[in-house]
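Render this sequence as a predicted structure.
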Amino acid sequence: MSALSLAYILLAVVLGTIAQIFLKAGTNATPVGLGLALEPRILAGIACYVVGLVAWILALAKTPVSIAYPMVSLGFALNAALAWWLLGEAVTPMRMAGIGIIIVGVVLLVRS
């Protein structure tokens, strides 16, 4: 895998994760309803998804999907870390162990 392919994949994963954090923060700040449509954090999350989609398409143009798609699971680890840090969500030892197994799997996949 080329450095450019890896960069596109990682950009897509990071933007997807940031989008999730924005969406969660937006739903925490505004009651569910029509007000969510104009909540700035919701709009920021959608924007991250749009840019991430472009990065993902560029990644798939240069990488086999059987290699690229499993790397999306790195978002689980990043999401848990950011949710703990920014949103105060709990990350239990069992959850950390599961995330560790996912990361080991991705490392094995990339090295194959």
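Summary. The mean pLDDT is 91. The chain has one domain: 3-111.
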